[in-house]
Amino acid sequence: DIESESDKEVFPTAEAGMTALLFAVESGNEAIFKMLLEANANVNAQSHTGKTSLYLAASKQEDMCEPLLNAGACVEAKTKNNGETALFASATSGFSRACEVLLNHGAKTEVAESVHGSTPLIAAARHGHDVICLLLLKAKADTEATNKNGETALF
């Protein structure tokens, strides 16, 4: 974790709350990503909306999920604006490898986002991501969980 003032100079935060690691993940720059992990960049830093590097990886760069988790990324971190987790992001985006890695690291299948109350299974079903639905079902996701509109993954 970045605590001291000298560390803050090495790992500055941009105006939108984006750290160099968040930018590296968002852009898919693997060389910078690896360099920052080796330099112990804060893997749990959040943007102003609460997105972590793991959340971004789960929705854009799924090969970066495992290294982030191995470096201590919190698998259950939620975004500030809608309470989404990295598992929810992978379910919505359709990244099955990210979903599998997150589940293997203990991601909870029943954590619902706060806007509509949808679980990752409901999101995956709504977006037509059948492989992710299967992964979530194998992980014992609740098929009868409902969102705020009373909808299940089966609608």
From TrEMBL:
<feature type="repeat" description="ANK">
    <location>
        <begin position="116"/>
        <end position="148"/>
    </location>
</feature>
<feature type="repeat" description="ANK">
    <location>
        <begin position="16"/>
        <end position="48"/>
    </location>
</feature>
<dbReference type="Pfam" id="PF12796">
    <property type="entry name" value="Ank_2"/>
</dbReference>
<dbReference type="InterPro" id="IPR002110">
    <property type="entry name" value="Ankyrin_rpt"/>
</dbReference>
<feature type="repeat" description="ANK">
    <location>
        <begin position="82"/>
        <end position="114"/>
    </location>
</feature>
<keyword id="KW-0040">ANK repeat</keyword>
<dbReference type="InterPro" id="IPR036770">
    <property type="entry name" value="Ankyrin_rpt-contain_sf"/>
</dbReference>
<protein>
    <submittedName>
        <fullName>Uncharacterized protein</fullName>
    </submittedName>
</protein>
<keyword id="KW-0677">Repeat</keyword>
